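Table S2 (text version). Query chain:
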Amino acid sequence: MPASISELFWAFTRIALQGFGGVVAIVQRELVDKRGWLTHQEFTEEWAVAQIMPGPNVVNLAMILGGRYFGWRGAIAGVLGMVVMPTFIILVLAVTLANLIDYPLTRDIMRGVSAVSAGLIGGAALRMLGHLNTHVLGLRICLVLFTTTLLAIAWLRLPLIGVLLPLAAVGWLLSYRAYQRAVKT
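Corresponding structure-token output:
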């Protein structure tokens, strides 16, 4: 647990300042490996909740954790930690670089950044998959849900909300039933 709201704010500010294009790998390393505020299993579960909420996933996670540890003040501190410095930096960059977007070099740089971002997201997904062995559904069912989601969005190009809501409901229902069976035994 963070020692103070201030520590929570600065931790999320640090995460936000490292997140160029995707932060799930950075968030996991910071909150689980470095700070020990969450276990790998807790991170996977909290990240799943943050993903189904509207808005940026990492901001949702900051709000969830801030609220868990310090109530509404912590939720606000977590969100502010995620948005204050990046907003300032983006404003400065937007003003400074507004005229450079038409240059081919700038477009090439942005393509390279996109590839790195995709790699970060893929790497984080692989790390999270490794911890699904301990999920109540077991690795096999989790992989079926993962594969179904991936195919529906990447291959079939179905709308995110149309895939997320039904599959999240199926995952929740299956998990609920598995927990009920585990409690009975």
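Notes on Table S2: The mean pLDDT is 87. Residues 135-185 form one domain.
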